[in-house]
Amino acid sequence: MFEGLPRKKLAHLPTPLHRLPNLADTLGIDELWIKRDDLTGRSIGGNKTRKLEFVIGDALAQGADTIVTVGGVQSNHCRQTAAAAAIVGMRCILLLAGEEPEISTGNLLLDKLYGAEIKYFPDANVLDMNLHLEGIMETLRDFGLTPYAIPVGAALPVGTIGYAQAMFELKQQIEETGFSPDKIFVAAGTGGTLAGMVLGAHVAGVDAEIIGVSVLSPAETLVERTRDLVQRTVDSYPQLFEKFDPTITVDDSFVGKGYGFVSDGVKSAIEMFAKMDAVLLDPIYTAKAGLALMRMALAGDIERSANVLFWHTGGSPEIFTHAGEFFM
Known about the structure:
10 helices; Rossmann fold; 2 domains; 40% helix; 328 residues; alpha/beta
């Protein structure tokens, strides 16, 4: 369906789909499976690599020589973007919200190893960073470069295509394994991944409730942001999609103190997934989605007979920046 779009193959696809037998037994769910987008390869994997296949493909088609993107100091998106730029031989500039740390660890260490140029914005928050893109773009153009801007989380229509395509991949795995999810849990920040999944599920015919677990925003805000991105993607690719009214489900019960804060519940989710089935979650995104799944199961909000899928969006380098918060 997406063969005519510019694309640079970056990810190792399809990513595995398999059971989590020990965690399933503990939570009282007969069929609990995981979709391993932490194993997309290229810089320790993650969900943004799927998006970047189409984003980088579009940048190359436009003749860009420089990628500019934004995020937090420990941004998974920025780490994967820096890796993608290195692979295709493009300059990469990262605009990061936060103070420059004395020691570079986790994603930031990898950003630097991939050769990214970094500018810090100590007083900014993650969602504000898109406002800094255009000024940098104008400066780069003045220097004779051809830059390509990627907003936070690659939450733009061409990036959304990556997760619309992923749902066709899941559809094929459903046919191969016989496992058809009733509920899909996925961490949601900017809404780009969630928008792609909702759009792709509609087109591919994946009949499952997709639950976006917000890590940053109130549910109403994230629902509207996601809905807007779905509609912009449909409008941008009328040859691929017809207009429809998407159903978007967001749970904001696990935002906690906000982006970047690690609660005791989040730490418990990380430890549970690791001890039960040797799956590493990150404390900012996937552990909140894992906690939502665990709490709903233990509260009886998920029936034992339900087929549940946890969509792992990656982010494991982040866990090493929080080492002091475990086993103290």
